[in-house]
């Protein structure tokens, strides 16, 4: 028997044998006593991820979503389980022979372990499943997820019993104490939570670890936790409120814990296994021998310990070594092979080709030709690297495989049977000797079938092929070849199932209208004037969902499945148009969409029509990053086109004047640097100061963090300063009326299209906008193609004056950290009249999402930070308001990497960003002047017009204000008067009270429904908004109050409840000890602070002595039936309590 040829990913054992799963798609059986391999299975067509052993049957799962069962004695495959679409991350079998599996596709499935049939599909999580635990006595299943929640499922019905929310980051580990009814969860947020499984309440939260808690186990009355901080926490469950005892166990991260009898085993990044006595908490021995972090430990019996490390080494340690360390090296059995990075059920961040082990090359055969390729590639990437085109719609290298479009199907040779079988190339790794066929008749047939099944309409096919060609694939020619045949196949299906398809169309149209929340004949949403969503073109690839949640952290989109066998587009999670939603218009979704369903709001045709009329002076301004990326429109590397060639392109497109937005970038630095100095020297000024150049970041502040508005710099962005200078300075200079100038900017950002529509940037008298139109680089690319402009036509051209000169500091605006670096250069000069000592300030450079530093700023220690990317922004702002959040100046950009990664840039992948940022630094270094205050044209502008930075004229034309975003609400303007009429003649003595807090009207509707339900028993009910109640102190006179509140976005109170809660917080303890109440909340588990508003109200009422008559209702919008899932049973309970205890009081 041969040993594994690739990394070992999972090990399990019985009393005699050890079973190991590997990335080489095989399973091997080893004798525990001898250490030799005794059996070998050719198991899967993709890397095997995990193993489970039950009653002589071995279950294995792979990275493509397939599960198989094996008879370990007869070396025979029993069954295959199909249903998951992505990597399986958790698997288990209970005593009733029921197999459970969780996947990266966010689903949990229940299988019959004997025949492989799917019994239940549990849908409710929104991210990767991390662990599964079943309770056969209660017939329930617990599943934890990266979405920060644990769900308890009824196994028989497949419905949710309870949702445990409270963690602020990934849940890594989970254990269930069935005897005590306690669920323990450990998270990346550094905490451990104890949950009462009967009530769903959080009993206690344990603190003390400095980094993520990755494993835990309990023994008797103690809970043991392992963390990345290298410490083991020992918690006495009898004295749970006391701080745990911590042991400095490992020099690096702890990866795993395992208890056996009265010993605790821990494995860590320091490549050791340590054995601890649970009697005195002392280390008994240390096993050394691994050459990489230890990620799994199993103990088959009292004589043997087996461990597996990241370099795929399996070690067998006899228990006698706990007493005899000297014999350690002699007794271990090493099975040395390639290493792997994906740890079983521990590291849940999937990155394509993430195997470690260097750049090893393997030999593969593609269509009969032999090639050497990097072993880290999958089949799709390997084939493209050597020149074989494979189409793919749903795959993107930055987001990992999805496998839904099935356009990237290939055939690979089975080692055992020597027959070719189909495989999804984006989700299958390569190995030594792999044989691949990419163009067989059966592949062509499957490709046509996949295209037909996608139900792509004929009118959208050309656009889809065009988008695929411009995106990150090269297979559009093959798709076009079979498009006609696929159409015929689709037409045949429609003829055979005409009535069924008619019903399907009606269902889709109805569902679309319901989900969007509007009755409309169109499925195109361009309401925010930045991006455009055409739901009819969606192919359900889920790219937009992934990028919006995983990269930007906004969770605006969600996938929706229909009852029919059909694909459905991704929708706004709130069922609203984009302009009413949490969308910040960053446009990252448009960068990743492969079908043209999400694009920038295209305005090129209107502009081309205007250019032909020549009725207005049309002026163009090009942003710093766009001159770097315009080269990519011609198939060149970033920066290959000179700035002069970019100017010539705009002149060839018909623009009358071409100016440089880098000029106003320098102007921004002069204003922002001066404002920073004012804030640093004024003790009453607000610090830290945030930059305001990025409109996506401004949208985020106004929508999600309105408390930060006073911290924003008042400076306009370079685009809006450019428009203001053109319309108010240049127009007078050339004696042209501002309304006869049409100002156009070329920007890397879709949010710029929305920014120019702000009323602050319009002339209050004429209502003309400062900037009339903003184009993305992709829109310029379409104009270039329509005009037939080629590289051979491009010559060097200069910018027009007077807005044509700029410095190196302005060029830095293209990259994350550039605004910070440029501002520090000029602010230092403005304060000291000396050059900044570190012209190239390296701590703020690079593509890292969060960068922090401090520097000596003329005797003051200035603490700064630079953040880019939506998810990084949320992470950075988490400790806002605490002492740990102590900065003076912060630069924030909404897109990863800053403007070079903007939503309007040419479509590409993450490999292009380092090239773009390096091109930016090269150009900055080549500038003759590198600081904004050295720009001679800037000096002239101040001398001729502005007079001085941050002066009266500058503040009027170059600065602005911000305000919280006013979300649309269903609360009518006469709500107060309506309820006043209803409540007339009622008082606390003869009626109960319902107080509600509602942002969009949903919580108000729930309050009305509660009123209707209680009216059947007692009609004397008062209802009003929380803020309309006179003062919370008057609650002491109420007999019974029902509180209803939604949670606005991520933990905020509705506007009509904020004042009420602030007043409630100021009441004295026990001041409401005569009040009886109940509460109902509306929230969404898609946000970390699930039902935060009602929880805070409930907690505060209890502190004030109020008595709760029933458990608070926590409804979840993401449930199958929405809020009604929780509301209906809650109302029944309230109805019963009311009839029993309160009916007579208000008759």
Automatic annotation (TrEMBL):
PROSITE patterns: 2FE2S_FER_2, 4FE4S_FER_1, 4FE4S_FER_2, FLAVODOXIN_LIKE, WD_REPEATS_1, WD_REPEATS_2, WD_REPEATS_REGION. Residues 529-559, 574-603 form the 4Fe-4S ferredoxin-type domain. InterPro entries: 2Fe-2S_ferredoxin-like_sf (IPR036010), 2Fe-2S_ferredoxin-type (IPR001041), 4Fe4S_Fe-S-bd (IPR017896), 4Fe4S_Fe_S_CS (IPR017900), Fe_hydrogenase (IPR009016), Fe_hydrogenase_lsu_C (IPR004108), Fe_hydrogenase_ssu (IPR003149), Fe_hydrogenase_ssu_sf (IPR036991). SMART domains: Fe_hyd_SSU, WD40. It comes from the Eukaryota. The keyword Iron-sulfur applies. Residues 992-1135 form the Flavodoxin-like domain. Residues 360-442 form the 2Fe-2S ferredoxin-type domain. Keywords: Iron, Iron-sulfur, Metal-binding, Repeat, WD repeat. WD repeats lie at residues 1-40, 81-121, 122-163, 164-205, 247-286. Belongs to the NARF family. This is Iron hydrogenase.
